[in-house]
Amino acid sequence: MRLLALGGAGAMGRVSTRVAARVVADLPGNVPPGAHEVVIADRDLAAARRAAAALAAASPVPVRAARVDVTDGRELHAALVDADAVLNTVGPYYRHGRDVLRAAIRTGTHYLDICDDWEPTLAMLELGAEARAAGVRAVIGMGASPGISNLLAARAAARLDTLTDVHTAWPVDVGPEAGADTSLRDPDGAVSAAAVHWMQQISGTVATVEGGRLVRRRPLRPVTLDLPGGRHGTAYTVGHPEPVTLHRSLRPGGDAASLMVLTTGTAAYLDVLREDIDSGRLTNESAAADLDRPTVRRTLRAAARAPGCAARAPSRRSSPPPPVRGTGARPPSSPTWPGRTGCWRTCRRPPASRRAWGSPSCWTGRCGRLGSTRRRR
């Protein structure tokens, strides 16, 4: 198999390609030497060569570099024609995801990505019939969130008689990783695709589920979570694919949303950026740059929205960790939060035959405790 790794020189691409190389090497069947190959493709050929050299040192299959700019239709088509499958880690997906998938369908190339924007998720799901007609297998959103988060939700829902609400969440500036230095910029100094994606998903309207219906609402709305054991906390809505995909697969009868666990001060600063993006004063790129180097004026505006909080804008450590680095939210230091967090699942109380599960609320644990639920003691 020849695997084309688009964006393979990026942060997400390097991790994803390393895993993919092992999968390719383990494919069953009698394969002649040299039949497998991983091509790390990036618009920055020098970066692609560095990534290829690093991977080749430990890869079980041959690795080479290529220059591919996904915005160049001819260049993208030529790269896809020679590949059996493509792993697309080029972000932000709301700009590039649908176009790359359509190109893959046209060339008959199987497709996999870690799309974390809800808008292209909807658009790409609509290409299902076209992909089937072309004999193309396309799997989207196969990262940690979305991806593992969806599997956690399915695992938890399988234990419930009636599913009402589904919430997935990840930490921003709370928890054991709150001090981790997660930069908002690429090595070349430009704001990262992940940061631009984040600004897209805290502005405009985002997909969420209310009363079992898919709707669009303003992001950064507070959601109070009441959890087993009398634990509770507040998180804030953000755009992400899980409400879209879980609405289709699990069909919750109540609400579904993606949430960020963050401090009130950070929520206030993000809300200032949201307001300025929506008014046209900022683009997604300039908002991400502002978050990396906060301005005094926006810091003061945020302080006015968060009484009692220090007049301090979030630092670059406040950015969410890259999706493939995390498998779910970890518990903040505050004792009001559950000892284990990840994907919360609230449900109606099960019938008497299932009362062993106790509380009308259930939640899944971290990756190490996949799908675990707490029983009443």
What is this structure's SSE topology?
Elements: E1 2-6, H1 11-25, E2 37-42, H2 45-56, E3 63-67, H3 73-81, E4 85-88, H4 93-107, E5 110-113, H5 118-125, H6 128-133, E6 138-139, H7 148-157, E7 163-171, H8 193-201, E8 206-210, E9 213-217, E10 222-227, E11 231-238, H9 242-249, E12 256-261, H10 264-278, H11 284-292, H12 296-305, E13 343-347, E14 361-363
Helix pairs in contact: 3-4, 4-5, 7-9, 8-11, 10-11, 10-12
Protein architecture, described:
By secondary structure, the protein is of the alpha/beta class. Helices cover 33% and strands 19% of the residues. It contains twelve helices and 14 strands. It has helices at residues 11-25, 45-56, 73-81, 93-107, 118-125, 128-133, 148-157, 193-201, 242-249, 264-278, 284-292, 296-305; strands spanning 2-6, 37-42, 63-67, 85-88, 110-113, 138-139, 163-171, 206-210, 213-217, 222-227, 231-238, 256-261, 343-347, 361-363. The strands form three sheets. Strands 3-2-1-4-5-6 form a six-stranded parallel sheet, with helices on both faces. A six-stranded mixed sheet has the order 10-11-12-7-13-14. Strand 8 (206-210) and strand 9 (213-217) form a beta hairpin. Helix 8 (193-201) crosses helix 11 (284-292). The longest helix has 15 residues, at 11-25. The chain is globular, with a radius of gyration of 21 Å. 47% of the residues are buried. Residues 315-377 have low confidence and may be disordered.
